[in-house]
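Re: the multi-chain job from yesterday

Posting the exact lines I submitted so nobody has to dig through the queue logs.
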Amino acid sequence: MLKDILSVVQSTWLVFLHLFRKNPTIQYPEEKAYLAPRYRGRIVLTRDPDGQERCVACNLCAVACPVDCIALEGTEDETGRRYPDRFQINFSRCIFCGLCEEACPTYAIQLTPDTELAEYNRQNLVYEKEDLLIAGEGKYHGYNFYKVAGLAIGGKDKGQAQNERAPVDVKSLDL
Amino acid sequence: MIPTEILYPILLVYVVLFGLLTVAGLLIWVERRSLALWQDRWGPNRLGPLGLFQLVADIIKIFTKEDWIPPFADRGVFVLAPTVIFLAVIFSASLIPVAEGLAVFDVNVGVLCFLAFSSMGIYSVVLGGWSSANKFSLLGGMRASSQMFSYEVFMGLSLMGVVMMAGSFNLNDIVAAQEKYWFILLQPLGALPFIFAALAESHRTPFDAPEAESELIAGFHAEYSGMKFGMFFVGEYAGVAVMSAMIATFFFGGWQAPFPNLFPFLDVIPGSVWFGLKTLAFILFFILIRASVPRPRYDQLFGFGWKVILPITLLNVVITGAVVLATQS
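And the result, structure tokens for all chains:
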């Protein structure tokens, strides 16, 4: 019994000592917690080093999305370059899993360390393409899908991509 | 002109009433802040200086809430119950000597009046639990009454040592008798049971079995909302303040300055300030206890009360009686 009472006295004393402990609370709007560069927050669409859209509207992100929050429609410009005509992400559904970023073959869709997405109106959480598209390259610098892909688009023919040899002219083969 | 002998007591009544209500209201903030600090948090710190206006926000919130009486409740008793605890606390507050000879109700049998008034608070809890017609509320009320049976017994007995040493039931005389030594030094076995009983009387952890959030939702006030709940709430805080004041009065020299022999210059500070500081210290102690001690099973509480505290208190009464008799003859 005496032991029990002493243990209560001891725990009371230990709790009292917490008065002098450093407080781990971060005073949010004034102070902000550090978020790592690869933190999974607000989703953006990035551009390649030439300032053109990276997205080729392949729909892989929309397929990978477990909550179906991505909707897009692709189109093609006169040079044959594909790009999304319409790109919507519904952030009220998004679970920030990052699977779209993993699925993207062109580093176009990326998650950023920004979590401040609050809106008064739920409808405002549906981001359109102009809300998603940023001016820069995001996390992956210097990557340009069309420069490494063997696809002929305006201004770049077959065989002109990086590390790509000129196509073989089958008629020149002397068999 | 109103003669001073009438004006003065009326003024005192209002000062004590206003003081008690202010302290009870402030305690909402004090408890939330200090509890948070002991749990390595900040508590409400955003509204006004140090978060003090949180209090105003809480009061506005509680006043504008829907005040709902369940259709199955015993309406009259249900409405009456929250007022009883508050009245009981105000009555006991009127007995406290705030400074030398300064009490609203300076009566010869102050100790007995205090015991009577403070135990009236139990009616509030029991009636509230009963009239709610809800099994959890009823369990809470029942627990409160059985807790009262075990703690009221030694609450009175623990004060008998003090009364014997002071030779008076008058609270002012009791404080005056502590001029040389506080009764905590002469009556440690009386002080400890009284502090336990004070905790139990104001339904604070670890003696909050009537409320027991984890078992009974909110116990006796589960069905209360709006300002009726607020009355229970403020009544509890006022009870904490009054019980702290009583601990200070009975065992820690009330309005007397500490160490009169060592530091006589402390007398410069008026007695009411010393009394306030001591009361504040015990209020904070009550909150510290809440921050650190978990709630035991309630039969363990009663076992502790009857098997440990009551014998200690009886022992204290016998020893004190013998010593007082021996020194007087």
